[in-house]
Write a structure and sequence with these properties.
It contains 8 helices and 17 strands. With 273 residues, it is α/β, with parallel strands linked by helices.
């Protein structure tokens, strides 16, 4: 880390240039850029990303094989995410942060459950795991065409068992990733479970872990406008996802009647998940 990085204000956008673009699926790509500070974030932390002329988005930070480099993995969906998705090599983005807390990585056997771009913080978690960890990674997607990060996960650590799960059975196990999770919990014991992805998937994962008495943490996603706990748009009951999360323990989430049920739109109106 350079002297400039040490003096950098995390709340002020740092201009970065897109160095590499990788198409993960027909609708998902990862944009890599050089930023020594952001490349070293903890698993579960996020950055706010300014797309010039479009908007600002909260993004988990993808690992990179290159020192000092980080990535943002984005699915083309709304106006803002499509704006980021469409950026080409050489284009600029503004990055501020890092923000939020991180996963508490326990010793022993750990189980990771991810879906879609929710796999990003789990990839970083793998890199922070120690030699004492025996890791199983469940990767959920709808079809074979939507499976990504499998090859990257294989390179991150040697002690990782990867189980792809597709809803249509076109690759790996067939069904929902939580169906495979139930089977694994019946046949094995784990010291901790970590999850990120669609909220209904995380909701079921947290409930299953709590029933088994297994330590579990989930990294939540909510509408964010500021990232620093001022606007309140990311609130989930009394918690602010940007300030108090994004990572929450299962026992805490079990007391939250919004988790797995509802979220707020840009205008603050509740909608069912």
């Amino acid at each position: 880390m350079t002297w400039l990085d040490e003096q950098r204000d995390p709340n002020h956008p740092h201009i970065c240039i897109i160095e590499k673009v990788v198409d993960e699926t027909p609708t998902v790509r990862t944009l890599y850029f050089n930023d020594d500070l952001i490349s070293k974030v903890l698993p579960g932390q996020f950055a706010m990303v300014w797309i010039p002329g479009v908007n600002e988005l909260p993004m988990s930070v993808m690992v990179s094989e290159k020192d000092g480099q980080a990535g943002f993995t984005v699915r083309k969906r709304g106006i803002s995410s499509t704006g980021l998705y469409n950026l080409e090599i050489g284009k600029q983005i503004g990055v501020r942060g890092p923000y939020g807390n991180s996963f508490d990585i326990k010793d022993g056997k750990i189980l990771l459950i991810g879906g879609g771009t929710g796999l990003v913080p789990l990839m970083r978690l793998i890199t922070f795991a120690t030699s004492s960890n025996e890791i199983t990674l469940l990767m959920g997607s709808k079809t074979k065409d939507e499976v990504f990060f499998e090859e990257i996960a294989k390179k991150l650590k040697q002690n990782v068992t990867i189980i792809p799960v597709t809803e249509d059975g076109s690759y790996g196990e067939k069904g929902y990733v939580t169906d495979v999770l139930e089977t694994l919990l019946e046949e094995n014991t784990y010291d901790a479970i970590y999850t990120c992805g669609p909220e209904l998937m995380m909701y079921k994962t947290v409930n299953l872990a709590n029933e088994k008495g297994i330590f579990v943490q989930a990294s939540l996603e909510r509408m964010m406008k500021c990232g620093v706990g001022i606007c309140g748009s990311c609130c989930i009951n009394e918690d602010l996802v940007c300030r108090d999360g994004t990572v929450f323990d299962g026992q805490h989430l079990a007391k939250n009647n919004e988790f797995g049920y509802s979220q707020r739109t840009k205008s603050g109106i509740f909608e069912k998940i």
